[in-house]
Amino acid sequence: MNNEAAAEPAGLKVLVIDDSNTIRRSAEIFLKQGGYEVLLAEDGFDALSKVNDHAPDLIFCDILMPRLDGYQTCAIIKRNARFASVPIIMLSSKDGLFDKARGRMVGSEDYLTKPFTKDQLLQAVSQHCRGSAADQVADAAPTVGEVAGAD
Prior knowledge:
Layout: E1 13-17, H1 21-33, E2 37-41, H2 44-54, E3 58-62, H3 70-79, E4 88-92, H4 97-105, E5 110-113, H5 118-128, H6 133-140, H7 144-149
Parallel strand pairs: 1-2, 1-3, 3-4, 4-5
Helix pairs in contact: 2-3, 5-6
């Protein structure tokens, strides 16, 4: 049963794209503990087939990957009308203004710096997947991006 009005995250599919097995496994553990269904991809090409086959509700995408980087992957996903509204959060070990701006230019909604905590990851999901009671509470509070952007 996929009831989008449910107050719990059950049924939400989150795709994690990262060439680092450590990051993928950490994100998978954190997201499963949060009650989300998790899909994993190790590069942009792998991700494109998983997006098409599984239609995730949210995507975390590493920037620096072999073959197809995160910017290219994000741009391709966002150009597809079927997936253009799926939130994409870029992941990077760099916290530079240029990287964040470039991510926005290709259509990403947010940016999370690695390494991230379980709370940071789950808050990002809550912030970008609308419809649950937790999301409405999160909407009232300043977001990580707003607080971090105030520097």
